[in-house]
Amino acid sequence: MSAAITRDEVAHLARLARLAVTDAELDVFAGQLDVILGSVARVGEVAADDIPPTSHAVPLENVFRPDVLRPGLSQEQALSGAPESEDGRFRVPQILGEEA
To answer: Which portions of the sequence form the region Disordered (predicted)?
Structure first.
């Protein structure tokens, strides 16, 4: 494991992150970061070379149904519930005040 995180390193990180940190917080954060980095180092020591790296603990399988072509609505059926239609399309109020 590497050396403990210093107050100066925490102050440098705080400046990079643009965080306002008090002197008391520097000591607290230095201790906390040291514990976090120590824990990460321990996890690295536990990982064995005979265990292959994986992205998922269980195998993935496709849960989607296959695509099946089905008939859809005709143009007349689709427009049958519209308040207004024009030239085979939905007619909506003009909102931009421009001519198309």
So the answer is: 74-100
